[in-house]
């Protein structure tokens, strides 16, 4: 998968918690697993339906902000932010089936703060990956396309190419990122 400007949002199984992260770079699986450098990524958690308990954690170690696994490992690994500060992992190729996802910094800290109070591994109840699309016209529009599967990606890309007015504005997400 080669996607630029993405946001992953995941519901932690058995809780009211949502965790996620923003990646301004491409998840490029054509290379051997590689660290990716950026100052612009962040991770977050939304807890128990209470916005006051939410955490936004910006990158502080830009050299190790993200890790992209090669295509041979992508049946086990999803996105990884920092040194396991948010990682989606499954030994059975399904993040909902085994408790292998985690949000813990074992050796280094790449983000400002932890987004969960526990280092216990967890399963994902459900997740979405959103791609932010920048459009150039007389004004700059930012849009999101849900990318839950490769066929949907191809269909959405084709529909957007045929009708650019189908896009949904995502300026609120980008405004939060720019704070």
From TrEMBL:
Superkingdom of this protein's organism = Eukaryota
Per the database record, which ranges form the TLDc domain? 1-133
Ranges for the region named Disordered are 152-179
Protein name (Swiss-Prot/TrEMBL): TLDc domain-containing protein
InterPro entries in the record, alphabetically? TLDc_dom (IPR006571)
